[in-house]
Amino acid sequence: MIRRTARMFRIGATLARYRLDELIAELPMLRFARVVRALPWGHKRVRELSRGARLRLALQDLGPIYVKFGQILSTRRDLLPPDIADELAELQDSVPPFSDQEARQIIEDELEASVEELFGSFEAKPMASASIAQVHAATLKDGQEVVVKVVRPGIEAQIRDDLELLVALGRLARRAHPEGERIRPDEVVGEFERVIFDELNMQREGANASLLRRNFEDSSDLYIPKIYWSHTAERVLVMERIYGVPVRRLDELRRQNVDLERLARRGIRIFYQQVFRDNLFHADMHPGNIRVDTSDPSDPTFIALDFGIVASLTPTDLYYIGENFLAIFNRDYRRVAELHVDAGWVPADTRIDEMEAAARTVCEPSFTRPLEEVSFAEMVVSLFEVARRFKLTIQPQLIMLQKTLLNIEGMGRDLYPKLNIWDVAKPELEEIFRQRYGISRTAQKVGRELPGWLARGPEIPGLIHEALKFASRGQFKARIDSTDLAAINQRLSRHNRRVPGAIVAAGLLVSSAMLAAFEVGPFLSGTSVPAMIGFAASALLALRIWR
User: Fold this and answer.
1) Of 437, 470, 496, which closes a domain?
2) Among 82, 339, 368, 374, whose CB has the most other CB atoms within 10 angstroms?
3) Which domain holds residue 320?
4) Could you tell me the pLDDT band of residue 222, with boundaries at 50, 70 and 90?
5) pLDDT tens-place string over residues 483-495
């Protein structure tokens, strides 16, 4: 509890130092936080910075876990103003490395053998160091070059401590924000929790890489490095070392006369194959994770790295998002509206004609330009914005897909600015859908499931008889589940706690801001002690209320 309170104290002081009261004061129950503007601030020229820049700097001050949270939050452009999302996207996940002695100890504990027994050579200086893990170059006993990824020591405990605070803040924001039930900030934190703990498990990352490698085993479009399972455990991953040109090094790619148009078209195809053919896509395909094999400049191949974030869709979402894409390609806006309703993304009583008109208003102006200038990803983002007006229910897995599409399209346009996304994507998706949902594939599925249906066949008359018997006796009961009714019940049950919650939260923010002022300003007059006491008391009460 003391450590948690101290952490909350630091967070409050950092928010005050960077004048972030204007962000949290938008919550109705925290409007009292504006009083902190009457106090002096610690950083010079902080008033001149944009709110997004101040938030980015605050997250960097708070440490690597908050940097990672900011990175993931930057992908949720449906929840953030563009200026804040753009600034958070600039966060760099680069932290000081931990010692090679610690890395060696973790490797030996996990693999139950000494580093000398496991490797022919092991470089003490890491190649890269991030918030979750760092990477060392090494060779196996047979001379094979590999990279060794080691999870940062003590990171699990730090993540759990920080997540407790983020969960509490997410619950508070959901209760207080006017659109809390729609944007679900607590679920955003839950999404972050799932992603970051998945990234901690090196065996999971290795399994992701192995499956992606199998999906593209016979492809010249994408290469996935080999995982060495004999040298991989929960906190250690050993992977084939790959050399290639970073995809952002356009000058070097041009110097080697790489066919950039072919490379860009391959990137678009890879996205649609991963999503709609395999239903398993690399969800962190930013330029830092992509290399290019330039051994044959006329036939370049992408190389993917870092498989900590891999996503898939439910079969239903996969079908509906694919149909949505095809409807957009064909400029069938009524179909777009019908699919949103059929998928359950917007309420069933949504007027199809109104949503059709809204979709047409967003998409149709783009078609007045040459297709190579039209951004399909931006159009999809705009449609999500339109759907928000019709009470779109946030789908985290679809947001991950949207982020990946933005990354891939942006990378393709960087490689070849005249790239016609539609010319590549439309026929690729149509062919995948013909294979996935065509008569032949459906017949195969029926053939696989037919024995199970036949095995259950004799039970069906008895089940029908039992149902009719219960109905004739008036014993047939139906249950209606409604998330809307549950939400109303939650809001009613929390009604009596809102006022004290607002007072306590405001006290927490004010006292932390006062301490920030006392730390950095001329106000070292002894009043920092009552400020600290006030903050601690507020923090303890706030935790009780939030829970």
Assistant:
1) 437
2) 339
3) 259-437
4) very high
5) 555 555 555 555 4
Residue 41, Ramachandran bin (φ over 0: left; ψ between -120 and 50: alpha; else beta): beta
Judge if 264 and 369 occupy the same domain: yes
- Select the highest-mean-pLDDT range: 237-241, 340-344, 349-353, 403-407: 237-241
pLDDT in tens, 386-427: 777 887 766 666 777 877 888 888 888 889 988 888 889 999
Nearest C-alpha neighbor of 521 from the set 45, 43, 60, 54 = 43
- Do the Cβ atoms of 19 and 46 come closer than 8 Å? yes
Give backbone dihedrals phi and psi of 241, rounded to 5 degrees, phi first.
Answer: -85, 130
Q: Is there a domain that residue 227 lies in?
A: yes
Q: How far apart are CA 244 and CA 303, in angstroms?
A: 8
User: Residue 211, class by beta-carbon neighbours within 10 Å (0-12 exposed, 13-18 middle, 19+ buried)?
Assistant: middle
On whether both 366 and 297 belong to a single domain, the answer is yes
Q: Supply 141's token pair.
A: 């006993």
* 232 and 299 housed in the same domain: no
Pairing between strand 222-223 and 301-304?
A: parallel
In a domain, 175, yes or no: yes
Among 40-44, 125-129, 439-443, name the most confident range. Answer: 125-129
* pTM (2 d.p.): 0.70
Chain centroid, CA 138 distance in Å? 31
* Residue 100 confidence class, pLDDT cut points 50, 70, 90: very high
Asked if 284 is an active-site residue, the reply is yes
- Residues 377 and 311: their CA atoms lie apart, in Å, by 18
236 & 319 share domain: no
Ordered DSSP codes for 18-55: TTTHHHHTTSGGGGGGGGGGGS--SSTTGGGS-HHHHH
Q: Which of 78, 284, 293, 317 is catalytic?
A: 284
- Residue 288 is classified by DSSP as G
What single string gives the DSSP state of each residue in 196-222?
Answer: HHHHH-HHHHHHHHHHHHHHTTT-SSE
Band the pLDDT of 503: cuts 50, 70, 90.
very low
* Number of domains into which the chain is organized: 2
Residue 250 DSSP SS3: helix
pLDDT at 512 over 50: no
CA 256 to chain centre: 35
